[in-house]
Amino acid sequence: MSWFWRPTPDPVGAGQESVWNYPRTPLAQRVRRRAVLRHAGILIADTDDLVRMLEIGHPPTYYLPRAAFDANVLVNGKGQTWCEWKGVASYLDLVVPGADRLVSVGWWYPRPDPRYLELTDRVALYAEPLDCVTLDGERVTPQPGGFYGGWITPDVVGPFKGVPGSSWW
């Protein structure tokens, strides 16, 4: 018997995967999908060099190479958090001419845990505050809840951690 309550997974259609089939210990997976991020009329990043993190109950979190961003748009932010799997995350602010500074919109692992060296020099961003994030041309829906940074696309089904009442999933 499991120590946590698990919701009933949503039905999986053709070409979809359930986040409830993802592993508990996160899996880092290199993928060739195209991510395009825009804010305040400016292209922030456009790359097909991604690492997605898969963890049970969460839509994938995508990590983009730091080199995909203009050197001036990502600046060190305040604060750090600790992940039991990946290590200490440092936060990044997004600075785009003509727009308000987006505080702690991204994070990265300066020294990722040795199990996740694929994350070296990579950045994940919350989709919510950006004007538009697409993955393979499909608009991304942010993972609910504000804390998690997963990107929901038509090819993943939930329910997703972050919705009200999901803190014990």
List keywords for this structure.
mainly beta, 7-stranded antiparallel beta sheet, Metal Binding Protein, Guanine Nucleotide Exchange Factor, Chain A, 169 residues, globular, 4-stranded antiparallel beta sheet
How does this structure look, described?
The protein is mainly β and 169 residues long. The protein has one domain (17-148): Domain of unknown function (DUF427) (Metal Binding Protein, Guanine Nucleotide Exchange Factor, Chain A). 0% of the residues lie in helices and 41% in strands. The protein has a 7-stranded antiparallel sheet with strand order 2-5-6-10-9-8-7, with no helix packed on it. Strands 4-3-11-12 form a 4-stranded antiparallel sheet, with no helix packed on it. It has a two-stranded parallel sheet with strand order 1-15. A hairpin with an 8-residue loop joins β13 and β14.
